[in-house]
Amino acid sequence: MGLFDRLSRVVRANLNDMVSKAEDPEKVLEQAVIDMQEDLVQLRQAVARAIAEQKRTEQRYNQDLGEANKWDQRARLALSKGDENLAREALMRKKSHMDTATVLKQQLEGQVAQVDSLRKNLVALESKISEAKTKKNMLQARARAAKANEELQKTLGNIDINSATGAFERMETKVLEMEARSQAFGELSGYGIEQQFAQLEAGSDVDDELAMLKAQMIEGSKPPEALPQASETKSSSASDSVVDAELEELRSKLKDV
């Protein structure tokens, strides 16, 4: 293979690749339908010309047939009058028109077949164009959907999902920490007030009980009064036992405090 052949092939390959990449399905389909419609217009014109030519051939054929019939009648007239030479001339004219009519008839038959074929092709092309328009609309819709999906995939591909997810996780952790600190501050603040009041209340109870114990101990340290009579002595002994028991209980309580 020569150098120029190889170079030509490389150039053609590159051009084909460039054209292939530059092809937009929507535009190509639109142009294809336009080209088909232009072909349809040309085919219609060709059919119209063929029909017109057929009409002219048919007219000429009918004219030649008419002339042939006319010269046939003249030949009969001349022969009836005894003029054979004139009858011969008339028959020669008749033959000429009949020969022309025969040729025109063959031509007319060919034209009729051609017109029929062109009409069939016209109907087929119209059907193909109608089908192509429907298919074009469908393919264009699919192409637009594919482009939209491609753009969406590119957009999704440019998004760093891991980074975005990590950012959300970090912010969620930070918000949880902020909520925990806020709750801790609130609990500490509330606990301080409650503790102070609890200490005051506890201190008041202890002081009251301590004062009561002091008063009881002071009463217990007073000197005993004169001994009463026997009955009074028994009553006093019972009272002393009760007092001693209570005093012992209070002492136990003081130890516990």
UniProtKB/TrEMBL annotation:
InterPro entries: PspA_VIPP1 (IPR007157). Residues 217-244 are annotated as: Disordered. Residues 235-244 have a biased composition (Low complexity). Residues 26-60, 108-158 form a coiled coil. The keyword Ubl conjugation does not apply. The keyword Coiled coil applies. Keywords: Coiled coil. Belongs to the PspA/Vipp/IM30 family. This is Phage shock protein A.
